[in-house]
Amino acid sequence: MHVSKSLGEAELSEVEVRQVYDMPELRYEVIEHRVMQRRCTCGKIHRGKFPEHVRSVF
After folding, report:
1. Are 50 and 33 within 8 A, CB to CB?
2. Max Cα distance, the chain (Å)
3. Alpha carbon distances (Å) from 28 to 11, 34, 51, 56
């Protein structure tokens, strides 16, 4: 049966809900730290230091 009337006033009989979880793409940020070493004209070697939290060696 087909009725040509608006559904705006019709009784709501059911609501169905669905959800989609969208996980953001994983991204890594790599920050390179360098330590320089130089020899003074007097022969003494001076070397910088890495920040405290930089411990890994690759």
Report:
1. yes
2. 102
3. 52, 19, 20, 16
Radius of gyration of the chain (CA): 34
Q: Would you say 45 and 38 are in contact if contact means Cβ atoms under 8 Å apart?
A: yes
17-47 pLDDT tens trace: 999 999 999 999 999 999 999 999 999 999 9
The pair of three-digit structure tokens given for residue 38, joined into one six-digit string: 């130089």
List Cα–Cα distances, 36 to 8, 16, 39, 43, 44, in angstroms: 75, 64, 10, 16, 14
Which amino acid, residue 5? K
Structure tokens, 41: 């004209």
Number of residues in the chain: 58
